[in-house]
Amino acid sequence: MKNAMGYLACGLIAVFVSYFINASGGLLLLELLTLGFLLSSLIYILSQRKLSAAVRTVTEVAAKNDKLEIELVLSSTIFPLPTAMAEITLQATDNLRIVGEPKLRALVMSKEPTVIRVPVETVYCGVGAVSIKSLVLHDYLGIADKDITASLPGGAAYIKVLPNIPETGGQQEILRATAENSAYDEDNESETNETSLTPTGFPGFEHRDYIPGDSLKRINWKLSSKKDELMVRLDEKVSASSQIFVLDIPQGDLFNGIYMKNIDNIVEASLAMLDMLVRQGYESEFNYCIGGDWRKAEISQLGDILLLQEDLAGIRVTEDKDRFAFGALNQNTMPICFSACMADMQAQLQYLLEKVGGSFVFTKNSGIEKVAENVWHVDENMEFERLG
C-alpha cells in the first residue's frame, strides 16, 4: 500500500510539473511512469503462469551432523523478459536444519534455470525432506504480490540420514532379559550329574568364568546367580531360537524436533542392542517398515548390522494402515518392540499394546511409564533400565 501511494504521488508530481514548470518534461516523466507500470504489470502477470520452482537433492545419503547442499531451481518461459521478483520460503523436516535464512529472493533473467545452492545440516537419522513452503511474486514497483505456491508441481528434496551404531558394552541386565526371552530350555543348563563334580565345585556341566566376547547363549544364568558372577558352559553349543525385535515408528509430527529426536534415539537404541548381542555371539531377527513395506533382517554378524544401518537411513513414520502389517512371528519367542511412541500419543500407544505382546522399549524422554509387564527405558547414553 505504501508503494502504491508513493507511485501515485510520483504521478501527481509529474502532472504538477507539466502544468506549472515544464510541460514537455512533465509529460515525459508521466509517460515513463506509465510505461514502467505497464511493463511491471505485464511481467508480473506472465510470471504467475510461466515461472516454476523445485528443489532437488545433491547428496542422497549422509551421516548425522554432515553439512551438504540442496538446490533450489527456478525456471521461466517468458525469456527475453525477466521474471517478477520471487520470494521463496523453504522448510525442512526437523531431522534436517537449513543453515542460514530459509527465505530467499531471486528472479530468472535467461533461458537457463537459475540454480541456488542452499546449505543444509543433518541432525537426526531417517528420511529428511526440504520443500518449498511458499513462493510469493512481487512486481518491480512493489505495488502487488501474489502467492503462487498452489500452482507449483510440489515435491521435495529427500536426504537419507544414517543412524549411528552406539557401542554400549555388555549391560548384563538387558542381556539376561533378552536371553530369557528366547525360546530354549534353560532348565537343561542346570542339569546335574550327582556322581561327578566340575572344577567349579558344582555338579553337572563344566563351566568357567565369563570372558568379554563369549557367546551370550553359553552363559548359565542360574549358576551365575548362585555364584554372583557370570559363568560360561564348556559343553556343546546351546540350541536357541533367535530373539525377535520389532521397530515401531508411528505417525507423528515431522516438524516437531522432540519427536524426531525420539525417533533417532529409539532407532539407535535398537542398533545398539543388536550390536551388543552380536558381540556376545547371539543371533536376532529384526522387523521394520520402510514406505509401507515390512522387512525382516537376520542378524548374526556385524556386517548384517551395517547393512541394516544403511536401510534404516530410509526409515519414515509408518502410516496407521501399515503399522504391524508384518507376517507371523515365531510363536516360541516373545518379541521385543522398540517403539518411538510418546506419552501424548495415546491412540498409537494403545494400538501398540493391543498388537504386540512381549517386552517394550521406549526412550526415557518419551514420558511413557510402565504400561505393560515388561517395559524398559533407554536414555540418550544407551543405558537400558527395566521399570519396576
Tell me about this structure.
By secondary structure, the chain is an alpha/beta fold. The chain folds into 3 domains: 49-162, Immunoglobulin-like (Sandwich); 185-233, no CATH class; 243-386, Rossmann fold, CATH 3.40.50. 28% of the residues lie in helices and 28% in strands. The chain contains 7 helices and 19 strands. The chain has helices spanning 2-20, 23-50, 172-181, 221-227, 257-279, 302-312, 346-355; strands at 51-57, 61-63, 67-76, 85-92, 96-98, 103-106, 114-122, 126-138, 145-147, 156-162, 207-209, 231-233, 243-248, 284-290, 293-299, 336-339, 359-363, 375-378, 384-386. The strands form 4 sheets. The chain has a 7-stranded mixed β-sheet. Strands 2, 4, 6, 8, 9 and 10 form a 6-stranded mixed β-sheet that branches. A hairpin with a 5-residue loop joins strand 18 and strand 19 (384-386). Helix 1 (2-20) packs antiparallel against helix 2 (23-50) and helix 5 (257-279) packs antiparallel against helix 6 (302-312). The longest helix is centred in the N-terminal third of the chain and has 28 residues, at 23-50. It is elongated and about 115 Å long. It starts with a helix and ends with a strand.
Order of helices and strands: HHEEEEEEEEEEHEHEEHEEHEHEEE
Mean pLDDT over the full residue set: 84
Distance between the termini: 65 Å
Give the CATH architecture of the largest domain: 3-Layer(aba) Sandwich
Question: What is the makeup of the main sheet?
Answer: 7 strands, mixed
Integer tally of domains = 3
Q: Using the coordinates shown, work out and report the CATH topology of the largest domain.
A: Rossmann fold
Strand content: 25-35%
Shape: elongated
Q: Write down the CATH class of the largest domain.
A: Alpha Beta
Helix tally equals: 7
| Total beta-strand segments | 19
Structural class: alpha/beta
In what order do the strands lie side by side in the largest sheet? 15-14-13-16-17-18-19
Q: Regions with pLDDT < 50 over 5+ consecutive residues?
A: 183-204, 236-240
Q: Helical amount among residues, as a percent range? A: 25-40%
Question: What is the rounded Rg?
Answer: 32 Å
